[in-house]
Amino acid sequence: MRAFVSLLSILLLTQAASGITEIDVRKVDSPNGAVLLIIDGMGSYYTTPGRIPLALDGAVIDRPLLPNLTGLAARGAYTELKVPVPSTIPAHSVIMTGNPDADAELVGAGGSIYDSAHARGYIAIAIMQRGDFSEMLDDQDAVLYAKSNSISEPELETSLNNKSLRDVHDIMLEWKRKMAGYLYNKTGFARYRAYNQWGLDAAAEIVRYMGEKRKGERYLLTVNVGGVDSAGHSLGANGYVNAIEGIDPGIEAIYTEASKYGIAFILTADHGMAFKTAGSGRGGHASDDYAKARESTNVPFLIISPNARTNVSGYYLQEDAAPTILSVMDIPSSLPYAEGSALPVKDYVNLQVAAPFEHEVELWKNGSIVSNASGDSSFMFLGLEPANYTLKARSRDNYYERALELSSDVTLSLSPGGSQKRAASSMTLALVLVGIVNAAGLLVIRRIMKSE
To answer: 114: exposed, middle or buried (C-beta count within 10 Å: 0-12, 13-18, 19+)?
Structure first.
């Protein structure tokens, strides 16, 4: 009981300190939200210019023609991510937590991008044809999802976890009814294309509605389009390529709507797809025959945002997606289980300094004060130049001084009794503990809210 009371005290203390004072070191063009578009099963060897997809027997597979996606990639920050486990639920879990060993249970443990977004006042909305496991659905305020993977007889459902979004839920109910019209009299390749198009059109409508009717509300919309994966499994290489070509105009349409309202557009996939031969009637990605193929383990990652640069280079992993998504949204990273790092897609970095007590803080560079703040327990310095800094923080009973090498966004938690002489491992432990406690608190609070 004593341990529980101590944990509760820490929880209350950290929650009380969860308000953040923002300091604009220089003006940044943060997006008003983000669309995370996951094309289920779309490998980057089929979409990246210069890549040549091969079947397992070495035969060349024709690449789809993607004028819109190719144009968007040239306009934004585009790279490829290596997938640790090319399977739908594990890969989605990695995207949402930043942990390469993540599973659905970890998503539900309070450490997902949705928990970080909710903590900063964002709404979480989703349209999911695949990847809609219960823990992911529980993280959404409103969601429209497919209860099965069937394209011949799809069964759709909605869920509303935030009653203030009844209007958004009504739109989802309308789109649930529209699916039958999209699929009417469609067979073969055309049916898979129509299934995908329904998801893309529904997403574009949500973005348009949020921009016109809910101006000023920040949100994260997650969209999973599942027909590409299904086509790869059921229609073979030709059907797979055809399905990818079919989504190309719809991808452009979602980006166009997002850009109108200052919303970041982020595109990726959970995994790719491999085929035994170029003429194979069925493909795969998770079984031993396919799981190690580069066509299964490499996926695209595209970011177009008001604050993102137009190019990025380097080798990255799927666990880097979650911290990158939060970085683009200028949300302090509070992913307690993440092992990935944010991609350098911005020309600035943010620093969050938090403590369970009120303090004043100074940020120095080259012997001069860059910025300072006081009167709160948590501060967010926005728009810092990537460089080396010295952090000096003071409270009534504590003093900290720490050298910082800022090349990406950093969240730093200060522990009681700390000083410049404390080992870095102690500071890291404080950061992890505060992050886990905050995540647990958010999870408990959201569960209580949903039960009411």
So the answer is: buried
Strand partners, 381: 23, 351
Looking up tokens 């408990």, which residue turns up?
Answer: 444
Contact between residue 327 and residue 333 where contact means Cβ atoms under 8 Å apart: yes
Rounded CA separation 392/403 (Å): 9
Q: How far apart are CA 148 and CA 154, in angstroms?
A: 7
Position 413 scores a pLDDT of 86
Rounded to a whole number of angstroms, the CA Rg of the chain reads: 23
**β-pair partners for 405:** 388
Cβ atoms of residues 240 and 192 within 8 Å: no
CB 161 within 8 A of CB 140: yes
The secondary element (H helix, E strand) that includes residue 73 is helix 67-75
269, amino acid identity:
A
Whether residue 297 contacts residue 44, with contact meaning beta carbons closer than 8 Å, is answered with no
d(CA 397, CA 71): 56
CATH class of the domain at 33-328: alpha beta
Distance CA 109, CA 132 (A): 16
Strand ranges (E), 136-254: 142-146, 156-160, 219-225
How many Cα neighbours within 13 Å face the side chain of 433? 15
The pTM score is: 0.88
311 near 247, Cβ under 8 Å? no
pLDDT, tens only, 20-71? 899 999 999 999 999 999 999 999 999 999 999 999 999 999 999 999 999 9
Q: Enter the tokens of residue 77.
A: 């920050």
Domain ranges of the chain: 12-26+348-451, 33-328
Classify domain 12-26+348-451 by CATH number: 2.60.40.10
Helices and strands counted in the chain (H then E): 12, 17
Chain centroid to Cα 444, Å, comes to: 22
Tell me which residue has tokens 């898979």. 192
Residue that has been written with the tokens 């839920």 in this structure: 169
Which tokens belong to 340?
């990935």
Average pLDDT for 186-190: 96
Tokens (6 digits) for 320: 């880097």
